[in-house]
Amino acid sequence: MAFRGFLPYIGIVVCFGIIYWLTMLIPNNVLYLGFKSSLLEADRKTIYQGWIFTYGLSFTLLLLNLAELLSSKEDRYWWRIGKSLLTIIFTYAAGAVVFLLMNTEEYNMYLYARDIPAGVYCCVALAITTGLLLVLQLVSTRLRARAGTAFLEEYLPSWLRFDR
C-alpha cells in the first residue's frame, strides 16, 4: 500500500484547506445566505464552514473508505479508521493555519458560530465519522460479496483503487 494509500487522505486535507481559504475570502453577506451581516444577526445564521467541515468532511471520508474497502484485498478496519480520524484532525489544523495566516480579526469565522469553538466541531466530525465507519463495517461483508472484480473495473478507475 505504501504512500499511494495515504495520497487520497492527504488530498482531502489539502482540498478542505483550500475550501476553508475560499470561504474566508467570501464576504459575510454572501456567506450568510445573502443577508447583511452584523454581530447581532450572526447568532441566528448557520455558517457554511461548520456544515462543510462537519458533514462534508465526514461523508467525503465515508466515500473514500467505501472505495478503500471495495478495492482492498483484505479489510484493515482499524487502519482505515485511524487514517480517517487523523485526516479530520489534520484538516482542522490546516484550517487553523489558514485562519492564522490570513490575520483575520473576525474571531467568529473559524467555525465559531453561536459561541461554539472549532474544537467542538472537530469532535462532532470525529463522532459522525466514527459512527459512519462503524455502519460501513457492519455492512462490509455484504458489500464485499456483491462487489466483484467486474464491478471494480467498471466503476472504480485504476488510479482510485488501493490494493487491486
Topology record:
Blueprint: H1 7-25, H2 28-31, H3 39-42, H4 48-71, H5 77-101, H6 118-138, H7 140-146, H8 149-155
Cα shape: elongated
Strand content: under 5%
Order of helices and strands: HHHHHHHH
Low-confidence runs (pLDDT<50, min 5 residues)?
Answer: 39-46
> How many whole angstroms does the radius of gyration measure?
18 Å
Distance between the termini: 10 Å
The structure class reads mainly alpha
Fold and architecture overview:
This protein has 164 residues and is mainly α. The protein has one domain. Helices cover 68% and strands 0% of the residues. The chain is built from eight helices and no strands. It has helices spanning 7-25, 28-31, 39-42, 48-71, 77-101, 118-138, 140-146, 149-155. The longest helix is centred in the middle third of the chain and has 25 residues, at 77-101. The protein is elongated and about 50 Å long.
Descriptive terms for the model:
mainly alpha
Task: Briefly say what this structure is.
The chain has 164 residues and is mainly α.
